[in-house]
Specification:
This protein has 4 helices and no strands. The chain is mainly alpha-helical. It has one domain: Fumarate reductase/succinate dehydrogenase, transmembrane subunit (3 helical TM bundles of succinate and fumarate reductases). α3 runs antiparallel to α4. It starts with about 25 loop residues before the first helix and ends with a helix. The relative contact order is 0.10.
Length: about 130
């Protein structure tokens, strides 16, 4: 017995989906999550290792190229991941005219906090 073919009454589906975007946001969120695992472990281990040190010793450690780069990468992954996650929450749960302004404010806040964090790390790294 042959399987019966079914056709949509509206015609042929073109496979774009309702949002017309694929898995890119999902993949970016998973990529930042995976990047956060080693970076967070490094950060926690570093904080524990420097517990009890003076501020000057901590600053000297943060001025090393590896620590500076890792801290900047942590900030990028952290605020990138937060932005993607908060976007999903706002898109799923805000059903009013506040949706677009909320998305804009959230993105600007994440970008602003990222910029301030990177500037602070660079200011410490270059001794200003």
């Amino acid at each position: 017995m042959a399987a019966k073919r079914m056709r949509s009454p509206l015609g042929r589906a073109i496979g774009l989906g309702s949002a017309k975007e694929g898995v890119e946001p999902w993949l970016r969120e998973r990529t930042t999550a995976v990047a956060l695992i080693p970076l967070t472990l490094w950060f926690v281990a570093s904080i524990i290792a420097h517990t009890g040190e003076s501020y000057a010793e901590f600053v000297a450690w943060l001025r090393t190229p590896v620590a500076t780069c890792a801290m900047i990468l942590l900030l990028i992954a952290l605020f990138g991941h937060a932005s993607l996650g908060l976007r999903v929450v706002i898109e799923d749960y805000v059903h009013s005219a506040a949706k677009i302004p909320s998305l804009i404010v959230m993105r600007l806040a994440c970008f602003g906090l990222l910029a301030v964090g990177i500037l602070a790390v660079l200011r410490i790294a270059f001794g200003h």
